[in-house]
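User: quick one - fold this with zinc ion bound?
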Amino acid sequence: MAKFADVIIDITHESVDRPFQYRIPEGLKDQIYTGCQVEVPFGRGNHLRSGYVVGLTDQPEYDPEKLKSIAGIKAQSVSAETQLIQMAWWMKERYGCTMNQALNTVLPVKQQVRQKEERWIRCLMDQETLAAQIRLAETKKYRARERLLKSFLETEVLPYGMAMTQLNLTRAALKPLEDQGLISVDSRLVYRDPVQDISESREKLSSGELVDLNDEQKAAVSGILAQYRQGIQKTFLLYGITGSGKTEVYLELIRQVAGEGKQVIVLIPEIALTYQTVLRFTRQFGGKVSFIHSRLSQGERYDQFERAKKGEIQIMIGPRSALFTPFSNLGLIIIDEEHEQAYKSEVTPRYHAREAAEYRAGQSGAFVVLGSATPSLETYTKALQGVYGYFKLSRRAKKNSILPRVQVVDMRQELKEGNRSVFSRPLRQLMEEKLEQGQQIMLFLNRRGYSRFLSCRSCGEAIKCPHCDVTLTLHQNGRLVCHYCGYQIRRPDCCPSCHSPYLAPFGAGTEKVEALVKEEFPQARVLRMDLDTTAKKGGHQTILAAFGGREADILIGTQMIVKGHDFPGVTLVGILAADLSLYAPDYRCGERTFQLLTQAAGRAGRDQLNGDVVIQTYSPDHYCIQTAAAQDYEAFYEKEMEYRRMLHYPPVCVMMTLLIGGTSEEAVDSAMKIAFEAVQTAPEIQTVGPVNAPIYKLNDIYRKILYMKSENYDILIKIRNQVESVLIHRGLNRQVGVQFDFL
Ligand code: ADP
Ligand code: ZN
Ligand code: ZN
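Assistant: Sure. Structure tokens for the protein plus zinc ion:
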């Protein structure tokens, strides 16, 4: 039993940074736990204040005689704060960070900002007036107003902030409509009885506004709810091909869970958190739903969290940080596109939203639903093992919508036959046809790993490490280096396999592609979407809206264009260089390539028109390309698992990395040596390295990496703690930075 407790006094303040230590009185010893709410004497007057225990210890930081004692415990609290503080503790233990870092991640920070009011735009028109207004806006070419009015076809209320940024509206566009009494801007949505709301949306169901779920969707909903109602707290995988109606399943689950008065968190990758998505949720749940996204300021985010705490909203949608919404009676967490990399935090604590969601759900008996058309190998493995419940949607949900025809084009053959263009002949021909028919085209350039490896344009081989089966990375000094084992060679003059001199850091950028499209298809109207063109606020959405509104024939872009957007007019998707992500120095590159190709292919023919997909590649026989072309996830999974088993990569084991960095090469070396020795004392751990980091010297910091693999998470956590204490013991933690990460 610990003798002392660290207590934070006011958790909504930036001073969560500073816990105060208190003595735990004998009588309270077995009742104090991390996260519990206590009363403590504070300040000079020793007034009683309430606080939260964030840590327990036997080692007082100050003279124990001078420490005050905890005065009492507030009744066993399961408040949202308690849950979040416990979650911080779990993060600290699991991912290795300080309690302060963890607290700052999970607790909302209040800033001294002007409190912004939540505002809504409400449509006051009946259907006929609305239709007339839309025609008027169309003829007068009031584009912004038209976008707004069309949104009202789908919902009665729109969140103001979201509408302004996403629809690119201005106050001036609203004013005339407001003056005519056609719309109103309400500063707050009247809070309605949740149960009544639910029954209202039920009525909408019968009036045909909601879709009738098909058999597979129904089976998923009832199967999941049956287990939930039996009190089985579980994670479920909803595996459904693109367009199979996963979102409709989410909506029904939310309706049921919210109907019982519980709260719901929906995680969506930021990039897919578009206006369309928001609409689908507000249409169903109106004022009970709120959104956070990265464009919100700290203060705005805080406000949303406050509303959640007060019970004004019941459903929170957002990227991974929405997990920290202070709901105290959570019933359901949904993670859409669960395979997305964005769910893994890139800053300390480097938590994975999937794991954190399962922990958070466990605190209040909620269940977790993971949805994807291309589940991560981890998740699918658990589903097959029965650890996760598993439901499948195997067909597209819309009538007459079928999966597109996919053809794989061998670019080596194109080159052999004299075609050096970035467009293969089959792709060019299809482009011409679609343009003639007035249909839309998306050209996708997979830019991951762009220009960082060498490949042969004659035989298609990328130059690989002889020991590791990853491509060698081209460094600026012209050397090719293996980032897994450190093997390196000078950049060769010709291909090691076929001796062709056409060896190049492969790939054209989107800008180049745009120029080429304009040159070869001068009649086409072209839009480009990449980091450059979307840099300004709302840029992303403006481009998508323009393309959705048929203001262009061809959309060229990177990853951004393939995620979750639904363009009924698109009947051709061209994937220009499928290999670009295939040979990245990362054991997950096959998985990522398959996901990207499948998603890109899923963009074609979403509606009634048949879709075509052309995959251009130098590795037409690679299993990732083959299985993506066949849109066969199961086949991909089998092959990829073979590879993971053979090379002993996750999910066959757990992999942890230790990165040590410092300005002195010597210090980094010796710290790594000591860490390595400590690791080797654990026989259950397999190590690779230490090696230099992919970018060895970064900002004058030298970095080395050690890879550790084990079947068992806990063994790795134990080793991590051991390494940390050895480094601290030797005083090395002052000279180098140490960072652990689970890959
Ligand atoms: P996913 O989330 O799996 O990509 P969505 O839920 O977005 O799929 O559904 C794809 C399209 O099919 C949407 O336009 C949706 O409205 C429609 N849809 C979904 N379920 C049904 C259904 N049961 N009947 C008719 N249309 C449906
Ligand atoms: Zn070659
Ligand atoms: Zn190697």
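One thing worth noting: Residues 112-117, 189-208 have pLDDT under 50 and may be disordered.
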